[in-house]
Task: inverse folding
């Protein structure tokens, strides 16, 4: 059972308050409307990406899930890079295409099945090999698997997760500090428009306060 540290908090209640301006509302609306089907990847790549996202950021089953694969696919569709690139990695789209195909080939070589079809334990073991630079299939086309894991898989997937309002609810984040901003920056202090973390024995109080946060 998923238990929130910020019970009763829903960052989307800030949508029409001074906490968010119109550009922020537009960005959040686009994230909430992430398609459930791929626009850039093909069906095989999409399955591999969905399985990869589930390994990197396991999500609670008792609430709506952040559409990680869809968010990565939308980024690839828009070709929205980082503004820089590691010289030893291909550009964004090429890196993801190669990486997902190579992940499937590595899985087939070990288990005779694509990555999305093997057991979670086997998936995680394969990703550990990637993380430690222990994969060497020709399907990598010269791309370093370890660099792909460190500089594409982790930041792209985790960054997508923590850019979504569902994740903000989990960490009590109020969204972009524009235009209202955050004032009480010192440890263990909060602005009135920030969520209240539930302390042991005070969960009901936090729930009550968080339902009023706008």
Result:
């Amino acid at each position: 059972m998923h238990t929130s540290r910020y019970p009763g908090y829903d960052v989307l209640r800030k949508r029409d308050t001074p906490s968010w301006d119109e550009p922020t509302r537009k960005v959040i609306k686009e994230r909430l409307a992430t398609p459930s089907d791929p626009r850039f990847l093909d069906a095989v790549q999409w399955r591999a990406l969905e399985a990869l996202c589930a390994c990197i950021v396991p999500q609670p089953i008792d609430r709506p899930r952040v559409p990680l694969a869809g968010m990565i696919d939308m980024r690839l569709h828009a070709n929205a890079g980082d503004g820089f690139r590691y010289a030893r990695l291909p550009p964004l789209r090429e890196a993801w295409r190669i990486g997902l195909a190579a992940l499937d080939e590595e899985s087939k070589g070990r288990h005779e099945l694509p990555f999305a079809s093997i057991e979670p334990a086997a998936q995680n073991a394969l990703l550990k090999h990637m993380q430690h630079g222990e994969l060497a299939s020709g399907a990598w086309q010269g791309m370093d698997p370890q660099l792909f894991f460190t500089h594409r898989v982790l930041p792209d997937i985790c960054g997508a997760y923590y850019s979504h309002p569902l994740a903000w609810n989990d960490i009590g984040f109020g969204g972009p500090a524009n235009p209202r901003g955050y004032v009480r920056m010192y440890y263990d202090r909060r602005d009135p428009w920030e969520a209240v973390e539930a302390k042991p024995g005070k969960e009901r109080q936090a729930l009550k306060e968080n339902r009023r946060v706008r």
About this structure: DSSP finds eight helices and no strands in the chain. The mean pLDDT is 93.
